[in-house]
Amino acid sequence: QVRLVExxxxxxxxxxxxxxxxxxxxxxxxxxxxxxxxxxxxxxQRELVAYITTGGIPNYTDSVKGRFTISRDNAKNTLYLQMxxxxxxxxxxxxxxxxxxxGAWGQGTQVTVSS
Length: 115
Description:
mainly beta, four-stranded antiparallel sheet, 0% helix, 50% strand, globular
């Protein structure tokens, strides 16, 4: 069974940091497909936050550049998103993805940035 399981979300004050993790199991092998983090805020469409290519090249949406870092541990088959200098507008459910929009998705983890 193919599974992506996110963890690491929570409540943090503005300016704080969180690290999200996404563990893959089953037939998914990270680095073979390209992986990404998306987020969806209440009342908004799901948006791409960051992705990492099969070659390990990271890319970011403009609003998180310089604050977020996507990385992958191939040995652990785990994807990460380090989020620093968090802002209230980063509040959303964050989803892990492998293989593009028609690929595999995790169940999501809530990130709330509030004082």
